[in-house]
Amino acid sequence: MKHALPYLEKPDNVTPGIPLYYATSCGVYNEGFPIVAKVREGRPIKLDGNDKSTLSNGGLDAIGQASILSLYDVNRLPNPLIKGVETNNWNEVDKEVINKLKAVSVEGKKIAVVTPSATGPVLQSAVNNFVNAYAGAEHISYDPISYSGILDANEASFGKRVIPNYQFSKADVIVSFGADFLGTWISPVRFQSDYSAKRVPTADNRKMSLHIQVESLLSVTGTNADHRFTMQDSQEGIYLMSLYNALAKNTGATQLRSTGDKELPGNGIKQIAEALLNAKGRSLVISKSNNKDHQVLVNHINMMLGNYGNAIDINKPYLSSTYSETKFEALVAGLQNGTFGGVVFVNTNPLYSYHNATALEKGLDNASVVISTSMVQDETSSKAAVHAPDNHFLESWDIKEPLKGHFVFSQPVMTRVFNTRQVIESLNIWAGSQVSSEEGSYKLVKEYFANNIGGDWKQAIHDGIAEVSTILSNVEGEIENAMLSLNSTVDVAAIESGAKKTGDLELILYQKVGPRDGTWSVNPWCHEMPDPVTKVCYDNYVTISKPDAEKLGIANGDMVSISSKNASIDKIPALVQPGQVRGTLGLAVGYGRNVNQKMDNDLRDLGHNAYPFVEMPGSSNSMVITSGIKIEKVGGNYEFALTQTHDTIEGRGHLREATLEEYKANPKVRNEHSHHLISLWNEHDLSTGHHWGMAIDMNACTGCGSCVVSCSIENNVPVVGRDEVRRRREMHWIRIDRYYSFGGSNGKSMTRQNDVDAASADLYEDVEVVYQPVMCQHCDHAPCETVCPVLATTHSSEGLNQMTYNRCIGTKYCGNNCPYKVRRFNWFRYNMNDKYDYHFNNELGRMVLNPDVTVRSRGVMEKCSFCVQNIQSAKLKAKKENRNLSDGDAQTACAKACPSNAIIFGDMNDPNSRISAIKKDERSYHMLEEVNTAPSVVYMTKIRNKK
Amino acid sequence: MYEASIRKPLVTGNKTITDISDDICRPIENKPTKLWYLGFTISFIFLGIMGVSLAWTTWEGIGTWGVNKTIMWGWDITNFVFWVGIGHAGTLISAILLLFRQKWRMAINRSAEAMTIFAVMCAAIFPLFHMGRVWLGYWPLPLPNAFGSLWVNFNSPLLWDVFAISTYFSVSLLFWYLGLIPDIATVRDRATTKARKFWYGFFAMGWDGSARTWHRYEVVSLILAGVSTPLVLSVHTIVSFDFATSVIPGWHTTIFPPYFVAGAIFSGFGMVLTLLVIARSVLKLTDYITVEHLEAMTKVVMLTGSMVGLAYLTEFFIAQYSGVEYEQYAFLNRATGPYWWAYWTMMTCNLLAPQVFWFKWARTTPWFIFIMSIVVNIGMWFERFVIIVTSLHRDYLPSSWAMYSPTITEVGIFLGTMGLFFTCFFLFSKYLPVVNMSEMKSIVKSRE
């Protein structure tokens, strides 16, 4: 803060120091995820899930959290561009656009409006207006990640081209073939909260769902599974058929084929079939495959199991992905042969993520006019004659309909940062409609609401959501679940021919939880957050199984080249990944962005673009490349930026896990023994007032990393970059420890690194994973407090372990003496320092800082404060309202962000609080209890649903 | 005066009292030798490296070092403990050996005390500059202040360090200076230049050599020896509390106080030997600092080396015997983990190597003793490195396990403190009598 001026005229409702909250929607999900934005003095500083909505239940994932920074991104285009020249006059832009488009129209060429497939109704009507205004205009959708396999399969099976609503909380048995539904697949935040609801057994209800994952790479979802089997993705169809046959044998349905069935290693198919048959109608089978034939087969399996109407709801489908590659492929061809003369890219960036970018680029060079509306100058907008930047989603009015009948509203939470205009307005203006320059999209949205949704407008905007039972959307009518029948047949021959082995190696392209599909990945928080599974920050890499690595002589970090028929990368590090099936390589998309970067930091030239590897075997694209994959060592070694370098718990007891069988017999399993602890010191008197505590349920935690990003935003945690992470100096106040154990399926799991190193490489596939989020434990006998020579860290009367930054002289003794290693030191000045050129280094980026939290200077220690600023404001609020604090008033950023409610925060002195109840739970224990640090954080034993 | 048929004379070469004054004052009264200039220049360059490295650290931050979220102390505190330990020989020689009337100490106590002072100066640099905000380095002092009711934390071993080290430094400095006064007066009395007469006269504080002055001097020496004696034990005991009172496996050990004290004396004698083997030949003092002296010191080295060796074995045994998995792992990890080379360097240099002093030849061959003294210094540096870094790098939660290696800045600071140490020592050898003349005069046979 450089200048502080009082308001000359105080805006309504704005009181300095008091935040305002607005319900709106998050734009990083095309679906429009319901969120609440916290606004201080006119600027949004934090996004959280909207807990009024059943879509989020209050949670929000890492990339959603991080998206707030895109509002304050210095890379945003401040003014529209005409032929690369900035103008501040939108009339000029409109004139230019309309003239150009008319010229194309007159020429008799076609014009394409390319939008993400999830437009929402208001943008859709703007697009419709546009299409009607220009002869030959066409609406074409484009998504980087395609779900057309599922869409086409449902069209074949039920005549409805939709993605059904998968309801994990209604399934007792979940079988996923490769679908990373907790990390990246379709709608992961919603799935996560839905899934975790059934994953937490209690002493009264000793039950949890059974999750079986069959996959090639180790995904976040796979790490959470009770049983995990490995398969090569090319064989998925065969395994699905084998499963169908195994089920059909029992249900009496006809077998798909008489020979050729295959069993998964470890008798997976048999076990899956047994589990599914035991839970008929209460199960769910999903697959990530983008192959229509596979998805039809999955539909048949689910139908046989009676899952429609229960865990799968086809009548209230998910509407945020309707992408079909066919039309976009036609556009690319049309651009090349000249049938298309103009393209308007509405917040789409296919030049980055389209598999055949060279063809598209050639086409765009042919086109008479290319218009882009993206917020930053990206790959596609570099080809645009006119760049008319859209507002940020936090500056926009909009309506989205992620689930049929479930509307989510966007409202601007601040005035525009730059001279941008919402694309809804732009399209309408270009279509020749009259758009009020003052009311703009507000009017359009309000009119749409009045005409199509109805009800109390103010309440709807206040809540941010509206659920309407009447059918308004463009989807065909409902079918009675009982009447659901399959019109499709399984194309056995196609599946068999697709599974033919054509090479030794397969390449699987996947999304990582941080950068996802890459659209929003030019954001430091997406990369400073380690990948939940590999714990690597900042890079993409080729993952390889240990047996393959040994065979090819590749060590972890060795540079390799990788190529397919269509694409190649000359130099990329290889990462030996436990749990990965042999014969398969993994490579994450979302990297290799090439945007006009104004900041000089590690996001420049970050990683390699993997989209060119995507193939189009039929009408759907495929991220499973089964032929022509070559990998070669090219010399050189790369040091990954890892936040965790030791992967096993060495047989220690800070992480406790048991099987459901054991838990059923004894809910106190693994916690029976308690240490006899004595102390030399007088105890702090915490009997009166509050005593803050936290519980971490390791059964609910999926390791997604949302809490890490949320905490960084709330507490002004600096971004330090790749090299500092390599030096083990990441600043996160909360981390998620990820531990592997090996050989668990044989009942004898190895947790010591020496044993694992000695065992054969085959064991590496058989991995079990536990996530353990660790933040300051706020010990009541804190080892850090006694050693500080200047009393810079002390105990509060409410049990908080406090840091007084001003008093800290930086001896770092506290950090050494912390058994949990949660203290972070400011090794350098991370703000206003050109060496750390992230958002802390520019005035715009610093707008995201939380004014309630000090930006720490160099040379002081910092750590989790239990979000003491939130505790304080909750206390003040309660005091003003003359009431006691109630449970949930004070929340930490991590607890609020967690989509699966794995983190519970509250007052341990309040007998009615959730935390008080959890403390008494049989599963609760203190980490490193034997050190007698008396932590305020309790962990809950991880229970796996296995024998 | 001091004669016994079974002992060899402490001063050889049939020196007279006049010879002593002449020999010891020679470096002060003459131009330094080329060797001195060479040594001083090299030391001064290293001192400059220290200045640059410290300035860089202060300007950029502690991030210029190799320390990280898991290993927050690295070479800094290793070097701190190393230098403090070195200082111990001086105090032991001047205080305890004085109380035990060990006359052989007389030839070496002056330089040993000087070494103490310079070593503590080097040591003090590390706790000061390892602070994130060195400009607030005075905050751990219990000063009345205008910050409100802010006060220091008397529970913190770092605060105890502040008291221990500052007391140690003050007492050592006082003791050293007191012992210098009669000799400074000798230089004054022999002075041929005005400047020398003035400055040595100023620092001689009006010494007149009367019986009363000598009496006062003897009394104060004895009192200071008495005051210093507990310091020999207390300083390194308190330094060891930095580790012993913590909860980190490998640090949390009750054996640390005696083990650290023994180690300190061990390393201190190592450094005294390094210096004296050079000094006696460069300054031509072989008649005063005889092989007898060296032999006596090698015996101390062997004894204390075996004591620390015993401590290493004891803590290893106790860790396994305790049944605490973290302790067990910490010690196994020292011996077999990624820093095994540091552990085995320590074991070889400190426990095994000094055993050669069972042999008379080894105890009486100066060049060999010199090599062994370097070995001891290396071993003791590694002991501190092993304790600090290998304990921290793998403590309770394997997720946070990390590795540490120093940066050029840290190496620069350490080499720089060597530069500071030797710069001081060269200046000392030029401007002050390196052997206590007045005491030496009491033990020569010839009285004329």
What is the subunit organization of this protein? Answer: heterodimer
As a percent range, the share of strand residues of chain B is under 5%
**Sheet of most strands of chain B:** none
The most extensive interface, with participating residues per chain, is: A-B, 56 and 49 residues
Considering DSSP H and I runs of 4 or more, what fraction of the residues of chain B is helical? 55-70%
Q: pLDDT under 50 segments of chain A (min length 5)?
A: 471-476
Strand order of the largest sheet of chain A: 5-4-16-15-14-6-7
Mean pLDDT of chain A: 92
Strand content of chain A: 15-25%
- Give the total of domains of chain B: 1
Q: Output the helix-strand order of chain B.
A: HHHHHHHHHHHHHHH
The total of helices of chain A stands at 27
Give the end-to-end Cα distance of chain A, rounded to a whole number of Å.
58 Å
Instruction: Count the DSSP helices of chain B.
Output: 15
Residue-averaged pLDDT of chain B, rounded?
91
Any guess at the CATH architecture of the largest domain in chain A?
2-Layer Sandwich
Please give the number of β-strands of chain A.
40
**CATH top level of the largest domain in chain A?**
Alpha Beta
